[in-house]
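2024-03-11 09:14:02 INFO worker-7 job=invfold-0412 stage=load source=structure_tokens
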């Protein structure tokens, strides 16, 4: 692990770099038609949003690695899904929520998580169902897959921070190159 940073911080930084890369491509947030899109740009940074989730959700750090895996699965299974600054907060909240419910022995009710995320309970319930659908309900992560992602998350922080992925042209290539982490099919 890099320094004293927590996994929530590392995942937030990595996701932020991915969103920044897509935002700097020729595509804009207007292209985001996902169910996770917020009508307004969130006033809290993604980094601070992860710190907030880490502080108040009272979950193990492994949930943040799992949330990254879940977001990656959404992108792999839905190639037209576009990560933007308008949807990454809600997508991350849903991913962490699913990781907590699947991984932790004890967890709060959705009302608690909705308050932390700054959305209504109804909206969180909707996002949870939507994320499950986008992932085809595939929440199980093998120990090997988890370790691969954990190593890559840590490595992305300790290597050259200015380069998260190769320079690419066009959204299709950006979406395909988002991950420096191998997909499940690549690990098989």
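2024-03-11 09:14:09 INFO worker-7 stage=emit residues=188
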């Amino acid at each position: 692990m890099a320094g004293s940073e927590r996994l929530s911080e590392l995942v937030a930084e990595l996701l932020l770099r991915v969103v920044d890369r897509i935002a700097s491509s020729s595509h804009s947030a207007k292209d985001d038609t996902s169910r996770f899109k917020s009508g307004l740009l969130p006033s809290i940074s993604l980094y601070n949003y992860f710190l907030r989730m880490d502080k108040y959700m009272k979950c193990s750090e492994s949930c943040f690695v799992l949330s990254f895996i879940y977001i990656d699965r959404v992108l792999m299974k839905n190639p037209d899904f576009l990560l933007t600054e308008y949807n990454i907060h809600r997508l991350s909240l849903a991913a962490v929520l699913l990781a907590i419910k699947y991984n932790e022995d004890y967890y709060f009710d959705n009302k608690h998580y909705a308050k932390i995320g700054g959305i209504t309970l109804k909206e969180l319930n909707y996002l949870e169902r939507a994320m499950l659908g986008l992932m085809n309900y595939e929440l199980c992560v093998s120990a090997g897959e988890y370790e691969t992602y954990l190593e890559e998350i840590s490595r992305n922080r300790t290597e050259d921070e200015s380069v998260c992925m190769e320079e690419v042209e066009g959204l299709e290539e950006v979406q395909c190159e988002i991950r420096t982490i191998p997909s499940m099919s690549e690990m098989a």
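2024-03-11 09:14:09 INFO worker-7 stage=report msg="Residues 160-188 have pLDDT under 50 and may be disordered."
2024-03-11 09:14:10 INFO worker-7 job finished
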